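Minutes, project check-in

Agenda point 3 was the complex the collaborators sent over. CS summarized: two entities, 734 residues total, and the question is how they sit relative to each other. Sequences were read into the notes so everyone works from the same version.
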Amino acid sequence: MLPLSIKDDEYKPPRLNLLRKVSGWFRSILADKTSRNLFSFLCLNLSFAFVELLYGIWSNSLGLISDSFHMFFDCTALLAGLAASVISKWRSNDAFSYGYVRAEVLAGFVNGLFLIFTAFFIFSEGVERALEPPDVHHERLLPVSILGFIVNLIGIFVFQHGGHGHSHSSGHEHSHSLFNGGLSHGHSHRDHGHSHEHKHSHGHTHGHGHGHSHGQDYCHDDHSLEVMAGSSKQILQGVFLHIVADTLGSIGVIISAILMQNYGLMIADPICSMLIALLIGVSIVPLLKESIGILMQRTPPSLENALPQCYQRVQQLQGVYSLHDPHFWTLCTDVYIGTLKLLVAPDADGRWILSQTHNIFTQAGVRQLYIQIDVAAM
Amino acid sequence: ERTTAFYSAIWKELICGANPAYHCHSYSQAYENRQREQHQARRKLCVASVICTFFMIAEITGKYVCGHIAGSLAVLSDAAHILVDLTGFLISLLSLCLTSKPPTKQCTFGWHRAEILGALMSMIIVWMVTGVLIYLACMRLLHPDYDIDATVMLITSACAVLTNILLSLILHQTGPGHNHGAQGREGTSAPLEPALSNASLQAAFVHAIGDLFQSISVLISALIIFFKPQYKIADPICTFVFSIFVLATTITILRDILTILMEGTSKGFAYDAVKARILTVEKVESVHDLHVWALTMNQTALSAHIATADSTDSQKILRDVTQALFEQYSFHSVTIQIESGQDQKPDCVFCQEPRD
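CS then shared the predicted structure for the full assembly.
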């Protein structure tokens, strides 16, 4: 018996699907200015690492090979930031009802952790070198460190303004990807008998999408897209401080290389390493504090002053006895979500109280709110 | 038991105030489970840390006394591995101590998430250590100029395997049966509890299992080199193979951690099933803006907007929905906003359902 119909349209060759997905990712990367910057910086870093690896294999220098491995490790951190900027634009689904916007906070946290570990390793190596100074070959040091300094400067110019990017899709999603730059660190890293400089770059992204609030009519038609400049300015400041610390690190490496070559001050090397490690550690603390705060479901610091006033205003509404169990937390930068319970009188107007409370909190900046109204017993 | 009752009484007072609503009881069940889970996890972690420290000291002194410095990559890495293990245990213990802090105005949910962040840090440490081991193995492959003392390797790795088996047994969590005290309120379909309920304990368990795999790999390569000393290459190859196993063990807990941190729907709660359950309550017209997210492994919060035709009876609908939800699932908190049916806008873009 011949088959009556061939369901050919349902079968998609798997390779085509993957190609389509990857090209979709590329398109989304290139569409946004800041992720474009990050992508190009990642390519620059990767090529630098490959060149170093090939040169190290050709000249049989173990130090250069291990340094290129370090650079690859740093490129993975940059890749994580890029991946986060792509992932956070995906639409929400059943498994992730809030969407994927938290990816940016996670990327910032993981990058911060990597940086802390790196700073720790550099510091311990500096201490090790200080205690038993090895033979340092500094012929190849100066050109490599100057090259690294130049790449750092490129990073500063590219990411100076934080790379503010907007991508609007009409209607359904509004996502501002406030991309906060790649971070480039340069520091000196000594190995047994070889000296080399390596730098690593990290990108972390904070983006925010807008939720909606139920206002008077319980649904918003006009979406106000104002960007809350308060918290993002802090992030931008942190990023810039980072890059400045990196450049200072490269300068420190160059100075120590000059000192060693001309004056033979071998102690300059480990002292430089330790200083740079301390600088990196200090500069990473604000970023870590903020991303840990978001991940711990902490009350948003920018709302901390406004919230008690909001509670007071709500409690003064007619019919409201008390407000309890308030929880406010950050989904990602500038998107706040809150839940609270109100105890109201039996004769109170529930709808009016609901819309008034929504208004009060919308003015404070909380757009997604869940208010449970419990009617007091007679 | 008395402390638990004491704390749950205070908790009820803080949460509900003057309202003697029945949902006060629903909170304390999840809270009591949590207290019990934390207490047990803390005990297990303390015992495991003590054993780990003991073994580490024994190994170091043994090596020092015998004057053996085995040139094998694997034994060196094993000693460092035990230290990394201990660090993982201490991180888990620290995050457990943090989670028992009471909620503050800054952290209104309490410090439950500290457990998840500690577990994430532990897993990152495992990945980094495995990366370093692979890197060292690569270096050994490229420059095969190392000696291996097979006897010392054999003895040390055998002891390590035994210790790790002991640690894994201590840290293993049995199924969900021990977690529920009062089973009385469970409805017809029991909630799907994940088998390993505490994130810190699970992270420590993954550490111990990973260490076990690495020790087994050292044992195997020691046996091979003992009987056939020319096959020195077995060392890095075993490291490669077993590193893959170690990374595979971290996948499950990493997936759970990522789901929780991304505010995703936690395991055991199907979005559609929860929505369907709410819709079965009478007088509920529609549900939108439903979010089920987890504070930590077993503490799940739900929030939703429910539209109902009959706005005079909203208190009863609220009670019915809350009761229906708590009967079937175990929630940390449930917040329902009841709206009137006439205020719904069918074309509002934000009231759309998330896709599958």
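Noted in discussion: Chain A has two domains: 17-162+231-296, 302-375.
Follow-up: revisit at the next meeting once the mutant set is ready.
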